[in-house]
Amino acid sequence: MNTFFRRSQGRLFGTYPLKGEVLTKAVTAALDAGYRAFDTAQMYGNEKDLGDILASCGRPLRDLYIITKVHPDNFAEDKFIRSVEQSLHDLRMSKVDLLLLHWPPIDGAVVPSLKLLEKAHRAGLAAEIGVSNYTADMMRQARRTLSTPIATNQIEFHPLLDQTKLLAVAHETGIPLCSYSAVARGEVFKHALFNELAAAYQKTAAQIVLRWILQKGVVVNSMSTKPANIRANWDIADFTLSSIDMTRIDALTAINFRVVTKDLVPWAPVWD
């Protein structure tokens, strides 16, 4: 188990697209529920808000695990480190727990930004480093390029998308996966199986989905603004889906529904 999984307990609270008072209420509810790992990004525009909230939450930063991501606009040599320093200033931290590259470069040439990421780590700006939205080939290239361990590749991961290839490459390279869009922007709830299993396990449909992700060995990254849902999203450690039910959910991945398409994000890579 790597530091990322252990410190996050397999569960992150995502902060996109929350800001201001909405973010304050959501993070407060998440802390009360048990979350200690929080995910933000330069692209989200809420690093300062999150930093202010965490500074006044009454919990020492050493007990929290904070993740942020470098925007591709800052992948240039003269921008990268300065952008990370600005993120740390906004987050009120001297070192972020985990620093990710938010997207591969548009041209797909990942090596220069990976080397800048490692430079930030060696400069003491991040305790751990990782990537996001990397394809299988990019994961292999990252493993060959970096001497520093890669804590995670954060990707779209949910029961309606077949990510078998990336799961296999995660085992091959030793780069664990972390999810986003864990409930596929609500698309999963159109499938009766999750309500059926929710009734059988006396859980919510969302808890069934998130537990499936966790049992795949993937860190769960979820977001809600409703305290009851936030607590439910955290409370997925006290039950286990049977192998039969895992297989039934696995079958839905053949649908291959993807939230983050090139229509939504033109700079997205060609997905596996």
Write the layout of secondary structure elements.
Layout: H1 3-8, E1 11-14, H2 20-33, E2 37-39, H3 47-55, E3 65-70, H4 80-91, E4 96-101, H5 111-122, E5 126-132, H6 136-145, E6 150-156, H7 164-173, E7 177-180, H8 192-201, H9 205-215, E8 220-222, H10 227-234, H11 243-250
Helix pairs in contact: 2-10, 3-4, 6-7, 8-9
Q: What is shown here, in short?
A:
This protein has 272 residues and is α/β, with parallel strands linked by helices.
* Beta strand %: 5-15%
Backbone shape: globular
The low-confidence parts are none
**Helix share bin:** 40-55%
C-alpha-based Rg, rounded:
18 Å
Described by strand count, sense and barrel closure, the largest sheet is:
8 strands, parallel
**Helix run count:** 11
Q: How would you write the strand order of the largest sheet?
A: 7-6-5-4-3-2-1-8
Mean pLDDT: 97
The ordered H/E elements are HEHEHEHEHEHEHEHHEHH
The total of beta strands comes to 8
Helical/strand content category: alpha/beta
Distance between the termini: 26 Å
